[in-house]
Amino acid sequence: MPLLCISLLALLLLPLSLSCDNKRTLKEVKIDYMFVQPVINNANGIITTLLENSSCPALKHRIRGCTVVNADIVSTLHSLTCKMKNLNISHTHLLVTTVEHSVWCPCHEKPTKEPSMVLRRRKAARKRRNNQKKKEIKKLCKAEAILSAMTNCYQMLNTILADT
User: Fold this and answer.
1) Phi/psi of residue 113, each to 5°?
2) By the number of CB atoms within 10 A of the CB, which of 7, 41, 42, 138 ranks highest?
3) Are 76 and 153 in contact (CB under 8 A)?
4) Which tens digits make up the pLDDT trace of 111-141?
5) Where are the alpha helices (DSSP H) in the chain?
């Protein structure tokens, strides 16, 4: 019974420990933008080059960016960074790390799936290779949209704090 109580208590407190209460102020994040901006520009240039001969399909879900209504810029930047991290594109790892350090809020790891033990036929494997290219383009398109939203957030942050 005590073990059950401890487990229940741990489950109740887990979301609190995973939340990010130590976010930085807008002024501090704005100061870090001089380090973040070249990394965003570099990632944007690489992704644009990789997508040069491809057209991006419409995204199923709209990327939530910073708006006047949504004034919590630091949380939005954190959310966008975590979405970028979950895409797992090698060209954006430095960007993810830089923004995580800027907002002082790390992204939590996504749980991994156990490998499937289903036998695959050659035909299914060939089809998967063809779909792999499409999935990679889709991931790059989503990364491009996230980069655009991040840039807009930082521009909004600069506008808000222009007087300071």
Assistant:
1) -90, 150
2) 138
3) yes
4) 555 555 554 555 566 566 668 888 899 999 9
5) 2-18, 26-50, 73-87, 93-103, 122-160
Torsional class of 40: left (φ above 0), alpha (ψ -120 to 50), beta (otherwise): alpha
Distance, in Å, from the CA atom of 142 to the CA atom of 158, rounded to the nearest integer, reads 24
**CA atoms within 13 Å, Cβ hemisphere of 10:** 6
Q: Which pair of structure tokens corresponds to residue 117? A: 């033990």
Query: pLDDT tens across 60-101, in order?
Result: 788 888 887 766 899 999 999 999 999 999 999 999 999 999
User: In one letter, which amino acid is 83?
Assistant: K
In the chain, the amino acid numbered 45 is G
Contact between 63 and 16 under an 8 Å Cβ cutoff? The reply is: no
Q: In the block, which residue shows the tokens 């907002």?
A: 103
* CA gap 157, 138 in Å, rounded: 29
